[in-house]
Design a protein that fits this description.
By secondary structure, the chain is α+β, with helices and mostly antiparallel strands. It folds into 2 domains: about 1-60; about 65-210, no CATH class. The protein is built from 5 helices and 10 strands. The chain has helices at about 5-30, 35-60, 120, 140-145, 160-170, and strands at about 65, 70-80, 85-90, 95-105, 105-115, 130-135, 150-155, 175-185, 190-200, 200-210. Strands 1, 5, 6, 7 and 8 form a 5-stranded antiparallel sheet that branches. Strands 4-3-2-9-10 form a 5-stranded antiparallel sheet, with no helix packed on it. A hairpin with a 5-residue loop joins strand 3 and strand 4 (about 95-105).
Length: about 210
């Protein structure tokens, strides 16, 4: 629900306050109270700006998942299909599944991680993450530079992205403590099932059980 998002609630509240002060500004102008109307107009602009800020941040973090301690980001089943080729089947927490045909000796995954400052925590924003890419990785550097590269997106399309906004606008500095990329990889020379986990320190992969009957 929209109202369960503290940022949306804050945006709506500031928008309402901005509208209220605009009405007061018009009323003061009609009474020719120039100082009062100027002050109320400035406050109205401030409220509307804050509403736009919180609304923009809410849209920009769409697709990011809140992170508490260590969380399962995906379960991946890997099946070799030839020399330096394999299929990776992703099962994501939202119930969706994705299948990728990759080239290389290893499964590579990276993610975006956003760490918020205490000021943003007040509005319900804590460390959050989004899986970004999956790729096949070669063990040898020479193979990496000469053989076929396979890279696919794991992220969702967004109207705005918090990573890009953070780079473009310095006024977000008081809200975001850090934003960084984290990556992990593991050998795929046999059929395996892995758990991709994410913590506040980054991504990690753990083997679960041998995949059989494929």
């Amino acid at each position: 629900m929209v109202l369960s998002n503290p940022l949306i609630v804050a945006a709506m509240l500031f928008a309402l306050l901005g509208l209220t002060f605009l009405i007061l500004t018009i009323a003061a102008l009609k009474k020719r109270k120039l100082f009062g109307s100027a002050f109320q107009f400035v406050v109205a602009l401030l409220m509307i700006s804050l509403s736009a800020l919180f609304g923009t941040i809410s849209i920009a973090i769409e697709g990011y998942r809140a992170l508490i301690f260590e969380e399962l980001a995906a379960t991946v089943k890997v099946e070799p299909t030839g020399e330096q080729k394999f299929i990776a089947r992703f099962s994501l927490p939202d119930g969706s599944e994705k299948v990728f045909s990759l080239a290389g000796d290893q499964l590579y995954i990276d993610a975006h991680i956003l760490k918020w400052k205490p000021l943003a925590n007040i509005f319900g924003q804590h460390t959050s993450y989004e899986l970004d890419r999956v790729a096949g990785r070669y063990a040898l550097l020479n193979d990496e530079t000469t053989k076929v590269r396979t890279v696919y997106s794991l992220s969702k399309d967004k109207r705005l992205d918090m990573f890009e906004l953070r780079r473009r606008f310095t006024f977000l500095n008081p809200l975001l403590d850090a934003e960084y990329g984290s990556a992990t990889f593991i050998n795929t020379n046999s059929a395996e099932e892995f758990k991709v986990l994410v913590s506040t320190t980054g991504l990690l992969i753990r083997k679960t059980e041998k995949v059989t009957g494929q």
